[in-house]
Design brief:
By secondary structure, the protein is α/β, with parallel strands linked by helices. It has two domains: 213 residues, Isopropylmalate Dehydrogenase (3-Layer(aba) Sandwich), CATH 3.40.718; 135 residues, Isopropylmalate Dehydrogenase, CATH 3.40.718. The protein contains 13 helices and twelve strands. The structure holds 3-isopropylmalic acid and manganese (II) ion. The site of manganese (II) ion (MN) has 2 residues, from helix 10. GO terms for molecular function: 3-isopropylmalate dehydrogenase activity.
């Protein structure tokens, strides 16, 4: 298989974790006789520094002409602490999602026995936890009209959704549920928000097309509580943009480290793969960040290409590193390996090289 992959390493730890994902993709290519070609584009604070624009047109062009996009991380503290900043790194990612119509953000939440001691949640509660969040990504309050009054005393962000925007991601979520435990939970705030009532009505109407899937409705405040009280009840969680952003960070607590969660953003054609973690500026350049979120995002990319065996091999290699204590600093601050060491180890395992000695 021949694939062209657009690589946007982005900010902070983005470049170093993405480098390891590419290592692993190269190992997959060697082992399974594929050809992956990489072309690099700018986005985020990195792009602002170099071009003044968080998403140069050339990057959009590159992404439109690629089979998939591998993305690292975005964000820089110098913009977070400046309320007057006119240009922000995050605008780059939001514009890319919108330009490519990447409307479905898919975030699987997997727990690992070897990491259970890291979560504040009791082991018993984590039994059987395996769910996937389908977060709407190109609508809602993120993209509504924004205003700030001339005197600076009033601001607003509109939240809007169309039938089409809701139904297209709901179809994907129903189809995913069909392949899994056949349960869909819509998370909304239908007791207060008009947009939520539209989500609920449309999802209810779609149920007749998926009679084998059972549907649950939860208000977002209750869902936030249920995620910690009884996370094993979930299979596919469907929700709008901002609720999905918040709940997926919360859900990462169940896995033991935010550094492990991958995601895929798909839509009409394009597909972008990125770890859900941020740019972690304090760790940038130190070779201590966890590359597994990025490596597991590359595994989701392999799934997207239809390379199931390859994706499974990467996941098993990741599992092996965790089970055998080859972990980064976020997981074991006293006894840890470097980002690059873990990346090389996963790449070696993918190529059936049994590690003899590690540095
Ligand atoms: C995420 C991030 C982004 C979001 C930011 C960086 C704009 O938090 O991908 O979850 O809110 O969507
Ligand atoms: Mn987020």
């Amino acid at each position: 298989m021949d694939k062209k992959i657009a690589v946007i390493t982005g900010d902070g730890i983005g470049p170093e974790v993405t480098r390891q994902a590419i290592h692993v993709l190269n190992a997959v290519a060697a082992q399974f006789h594929h050809h992956f070609h990489y072309e690099y584009g700018l986005m985020g604070a990195d792009a602002i520094d170099k071009t003044g624009n968080p998403l140069p047109d050339s990057t959009i062009e590159l992404c439109l002409n690629s089979d998939a996009i591998l993305f690292g991380a975005i964000g820089h503290p110098k913009y977070d602490n400046d309320p007057n900043a006119k240009v922000r790194p995050e605008q780059g990612l939001l514009k890319l999602r919108k330009s490519l119509q990447l409307f479905a953000n898919i975030r699987p939440v997997t727990t690992y026995a070897a990491l259970q001691h890291l979560t504040p949640v009791k082991a018993k509660i984590l039994e059987g936890v395996d769910f996937i969040i389908y977060r709407e990504l190109t609508g809602g309050i993120y993209f509504g009209n924004k205003t700030l009054s001339a005197d600076g005393n009033m601001a607003s962000d509109d939240c809007a959704y169309t039938k089409n925007e809701i139904e297209r991601i709901a179809h994907l979520a129903f189809q995913a549920a069909r392949q899994r435990k056949k349960k869909l939970t819509l998370v909304d705030k239908a007791n207060v928000l008009e947009t939520s009532r539209l989500w609920r009505k449309l999802v209810r109407e779609m149920q007749s097309q998926y009679p084998d899937v059972s549907v649950d409705f939860l208000f977002v405040d209750n869902a936030a509580m249920q995620l910690i009280l009884n996370p094993a009840q979930f299979d596919v969680v469907l929700t709008e943009n901002m609720f999905g952003d918040i709940l997926s960070d919360e859900a990462s607590v169940l896995t033991g480290s935010l550094g492990l969660l991958p995601s895929a953003s798909i839509g009409n054609g394009g597909a972008l793969f990125e770890p859900i973690h941020g740019s972690y500026p304090a760790a940038a350049g130190k070779d201590i960040a966890n590359p597994l979120g990025s490596i597991l995002s590359a595994a989701m990319m392999l799934d997207h290409f239809g390379l199931k065996e390859e994706a499974t091999k990467v996941r098993l290699a990741v599992q092996w590193t965790l089970d055998n204590g080859f972990v980064t600093k976020d997981i074991d601050p006293m006894n840890f390996y470097f980002t690059s060491t873990i990346g090389e180890l996963v790449a070696d395992l993918v190529q059936d090289k049994i590690p003899t000695e590690l540095h």
